[in-house]
Design brief:
Elements (H helix, E strand, L loop, with lengths): L2 H30 L5 H18 L7 H18 L1 H4 L1
Helix pairs in contact: 1-3, 2-3
Keywords: Membrane, Transmembrane, Transmembrane helix
Length: 86
């Protein structure tokens, strides 16, 4: 396997992990609490993204994971609050 293929698989696995983490946390919040706690749902992934960004400040390899966390947080927040929005 070439280094290019390994780097592409690494980027895809980072994005998949971000989707999986935010979706699982969103489903947990949706099933556990009656009004969906959207502030804690938004705060936890943003906090994790800040921690990882500060921890791996000079390493650009975690950029896709951090951006994936932030984008998926916004998307899943809209999905789980759809009935409250409209």
């Amino acid at each position: 396997m070439s280094t290019y293929a390994k780097s592409e698989l690494s980027l895809l696995s980072e994005l998949f992990l971000a989707i999986l983490l935010t979706a699982c946390y969103g489903i947990f919040c949706f099933k556990s609490f009656q009004p969906f706690p959207w502030l804690s749902f938004i705060g936890a992934p943003i906090g994790l993204a800040i921690i990882i960004a500060c921890w791996k400040m000079k390493s650009p390899q975690w950029t896709f994971f951090i951006v994936g966390l932030l984008l998926n947080t916004v998307i899943w927040s809209i999905v789980f609050n759809w009935s409250s929005i409209f």
